[in-house]
Specification:
By secondary structure, the chain is mainly alpha-helical. The protein has a domain of 83 residues: Alpha Horseshoe (Serine Threonine Protein Phosphatase 5, Tetratricopeptide repeat). It is built from 13 helices and two strands; from the N terminus they run ββααααααααααααα. Strands 1-2 form a two-stranded antiparallel sheet.
Length: 251
């Protein structure tokens, strides 16, 4: 038997769906890997590393000029055009951090670590974001991993010194502060961090000695106004105030 529609068009036969009940087809779940997901989101034909490089440079130029909004916009385009390059995400994440967008920065840097979970620049940057945000346990875990991967990583040791001082684990703060000064003796920041660690531990003599070493490298640490600059170097407000106490004692 055939059923004809208007104009003589064949529309159904006795055995077609709708004329009999078909058994239901069961749903089969499929787990898609992160790599496959990212390939679907960013197919190869959309990747343009050359254009991404130009946008990265433009973003850095904006950042240098103090235009953080323009920098972030350009760097987002660079990351979209070269999504499998962890550097794209590290530069964007660090710029977001400098602009004060710590949650966005952490998310971007975690994206870089999904590309390579042992990528030290991403670990360094994410550890600093955690430190400034007061997530001290996360900061310690992240910087510890970075130091394990690269033992001469002065950034990790310096920030571990600051994090452990805030956690009142002064032996650890001193140990990492000493390592940071050995790895980067010409930078005053590790010497100030080490002075602070000794100060908090109750060792006034070593606090003064290490602060004097920082002053030999940069005499501006005699100014309270300049001490406020330490906030950009990962110091908390309480740590800056304690550093001022060291200077007040030795002047």
């Amino acid at each position: 038997m055939r059923i004809w529609g208007a104009g003589g068009i064949l529309v159904a036969g006795l055995g077609l769906a709708g004329c009999r009940t078909e058994p239901p087809v069961g749903f089969v779940g499929t787990e898609i890997s992160q790599d496959t997901t990212e390939t679907l989101l960013y197919p190869v034909f959309l990747v343009d590393t050359a254009t991404a490089g130009r946008y990265r440079q433009e973003g850095l130029n904006f950042r240098q000029a103090g235009d953080m909004e323009g920098a972030i916009a350009a760097l987002k385009i660079a990351a979209a055009l070269d999504p499998q390059n962890p550097d794209s995400h590290v530069i964007l994440g660090w710029t977001q951090h400098l602009a004060g967008s710590r949650a966005a920065a952490a998310k971007t840097l975690q994206t870089a670590l999904r590309q390579d979970d042992d990528y030290v620049p991403a670990l360094n940057a994410l550890g600093i974001v955690y430190l400034v945000d007061g997530q001290l346990d996360a900061a310690v875990a992240t910087h510890t991993r970075a130091a394990e991967l690269k033992p001469d990583n002065e950034i990790a040791h310096y920030n571990l010194s600051l994090a452990y001082e805030r956690l009142a684990q002064f032996d650890q703060a001193i140990s990492h502060g000493q390592t940071a000064t050995e790895l980067e003796p010409g930078n005053p920041h590790p010497w100030v961090a080490l002075a602070l660690a000794y100060w908090s531990s109750g060792d006034q003599v070593q606090a003064e000695a290490n602060y004097w070493q920082a002053l030999r490298l940069d005499g501006r640490y005699t100014s309270q106004g300049y001490l406020d600059h330490l906030e950009q170097a990962g110091f908390s407000r309480d740590q800056i105030d304690a550093t001022g106490e060291i200077w007040a004692l030795i002047q």
